[in-house]
Write a structure and sequence with these properties.
Oligomer: single chain
Number of strands: 15
Bound molecules: pyridoxal-5'-phosphate
Strand content: 5-15%
InterPro entries: Aminotrans_V_dom, Aminotrans_V_PyrdxlP_BS, Cysteine_dSase, PyrdxlP-dep_Trfase, PyrdxlP-dep_Trfase_major, PyrdxlP-dep_Trfase_small
Radius of gyration: 21 Å
Keywords: Iron, Iron-sulfur, Metal-binding, Pyridoxal phosphate, Transferase
Family: Belongs to the class-V pyridoxal-phosphate-dependent aminotransferase family. NifS/IscS subfamily.
CATH architecture of the largest domain: 3-Layer(aba) Sandwich
Order of helices and strands: EHHEHEHEHEHEHEEHEEHEEEEHHEH
Function: Catalyzes the removal of elemental sulfur atoms from cysteine to produce alanine. Seems to participate in the biosynthesis of the nitrogenase metalloclusters by providing the inorganic sulfur required for the Fe-S core formation.
Protein name: Cysteine desulfurase
Strand order of the largest sheet: 2-8-7-6-5-3-4
Distance between the termini: 38 Å
CATH class of the largest domain: Alpha Beta
CATH superfamily of the largest domain: Type I PLP-dependent aspartate aminotransferase-like (Major domain)
Structural class: alpha/beta
Length: 394
Amino acid sequence: MSPSTDSSPVYLDYNATAPLRPEARAALLAALAAPANPSSVHGFGRAARSIAESAREQVAALAGAEPKRVVFTSGGTEANNLAIALARAPVSGPVGARPGVTRLVVSAIEHDSVLRPARASGLPVTEVPAGPDGRVDPAAVAAALDAGEGPALVCLMLANNETGVIQPVADVTRLAHERGALVLCDAVQAAGKIPLDLAALGCDFLTLSAHKLGGATGCGALITRDDWAPAPLIRGGGQELGQRAGTENLGGIAAFGAAAAVARASLPEQAARIAGLRDRLQAALTGACPAAVVYGAEAGGMGAGRLPNTLCIGMPGVPAETQVMALDLAGVAVSAGSACSSGKVTPSHVLTAMGLPGQAAREAVRFSLGWASTDADIERAASAWIALAARKVK
Ligand code: PLP
């Protein structure tokens, strides 16, 4: 993506999906240039297998994990569903012996790909809200675990997709393990934006999505700390360690590997550059409209903070859909913090879980930046939002 000129659209919706990185596009096209089924024993198959295994190493390196623990999936949504299914199934045999979990403790700010399978699981689910700073309190997770009985799975994302607030996953994992619980950490938004280290997080399951870091849509990964019995979710051939049957999406996997490698190599320098742009945008918006509210900027304490690329901001009295449409007309693509379905904007479940009243939770939009964002993008976005605020905010 080339830097925007005055007429080209400005894309600031990286938390929805990032533009494909050139390195990922090249890897995708190269992987699809020949017949490519990694299970075939002939030379074509062996070449395909070697592409998949290199990508597995690149994705594992991004997460500080062992390549043999990486299972490629169709995306973050499937990886989260798969982790919950694995945790529920009792394990016995060569991979060890564990009872399946009988209850779930889930942060109320999780993505729907965690919340919905949790709620549909038929197991008791405790939803733990976040504080006003957007952060889930580890003590609240411990209290939820102590209030019930039986093996539990705790689900806590590493960074929230709407506010960017980084969650105290390592602390929660420690408390959960002391209580015999497993932990699923959805690192879909954190990967490639902040350093990721599976050993430091200590969680049992970590999930990633390729398209959030410049790979292609339709590919993700579940990374496990241990061996698990074959997944009860998708049965068929024995691909992906028996955890995810079906011929591999080789192009998507190759692009994921390439995107993960570039994201990892450029992380410190890109994170600083992008945080600089985000901070300038935030200062411009709050300077021009002092009534605007920034969500998640106050998150503090050990292991807390905000993703460098995310700005969730409310314009008082102006519904998120009005802001998104006005920005779109000005050629700037952003998302509403709240979900819009069948023409009705519902309050953001994340902001609601932080204790915000319904109206405020309907007025937040999310600017999310990334690898191709430029100074010019920020200027265009700021002037469009400020022009709207000047018309609408009394
Ligand atoms: N988890 C989080 C935190 C997300 O933001 C998203 C996508 O928005 C997902 C999971 C789902 O990922 P995918 O689009 O790869 O299914």
